[in-house]
Amino acid sequence: MQQYRFTQPGTFSMAILIPVFGLILFLMFSSGLNDTIQIAIFVFTALILLMGILLFYKITIYIDERQVYFKMGCGLISKRYNLDEIKNCKPVRNPLLYGIGLRKIPGGWLFNVSGLDAIELEFKNSKSIVRIGTDKPEEVAAVINRLIKSDLHVPFKKEKEYSAVILAIIIIIFSVLLPASLLVAGSKETEAFISDNQLIIKGMYGINIKLTDIVRVDTFPVLPGIKKRDNGYASGSTLKGRFTLKDGSKARLFVKKDKPPFINIKTDKLNIWLNFTNPGNTRRLYTELNK
Length: 291
Prior knowledge:
Blueprint: E1 4-9, H1 11-30, H2 36-56, E2 58-63, E3 67-72, E4 77-82, E5 86-93, E6 101-105, E7 108-112, E8 117-123, E9 126-133, H3 137-147, H4 162-187, E10 191-195, E11 198-202, E12 207-210, E13 214-220, E14 226-235, E15 238-245, E16 250-256, E17 262-267, E18 271-274, H5 279-290
Parallel strand pairs: 7-9, 16-18
Antiparallel strand pairs: 1-2, 2-3, 3-4, 5-8, 6-7, 8-9, 10-11, 11-12, 13-17, 14-15, 15-16, 17-18
């Protein structure tokens, strides 16, 4: 029995999933692996992305004298259709909004891993259609129509997929470059200086504090214990933003955990911990604040 096989690599899917998977792993290990909840979120996200990679790295269509069979990726998603149930098959081009993956579309279902080209199966006893992505829609349709003895012929012009390329670039920018830029911005050392009777803390989660509002300034060789991050940035030794301390109190941190000493600044409403990579700069700011 002769069998035809057509395999399309999931180029589009992999261009999205693999960089994001790598970014999640990088963020997880650079976070210091100290926050259990944060690590659990990273691991869960990484597993979902890994599952997506295994499901969508390719799609293969098999055709023999009895059936059309396809499987996506490692085979967890697969379907079989008997040839005597198929009315006809035609090459089609999906609208850009149909996207990739397994999804409901008007009139039926789409199974796709890359690009916009597909075959569309129509059935004798069902109004529902099935679209299966392939980079050789004319060849696949011709084989199926020959086996089911259908004389359907649909002109098909394969176009350059500029729209799909543009969409891929946009998704990569938002899913990879945007988080990467946030990572770079967060890793940047906090700037803090006194100007116009204010302590100005610039950068991510920056804040301005009137000197007259400060009720106490101290230095400490170690940070207090940290219970969780509420709304902030944590990567490696860098902590910025709102955190809850182990005693239950709230604090704003602008610190490198491995670079003591630490300045503790308190107002009636704020509890701030601040330092710089260079301990000398930390001591200089502390001296200025005391003046």
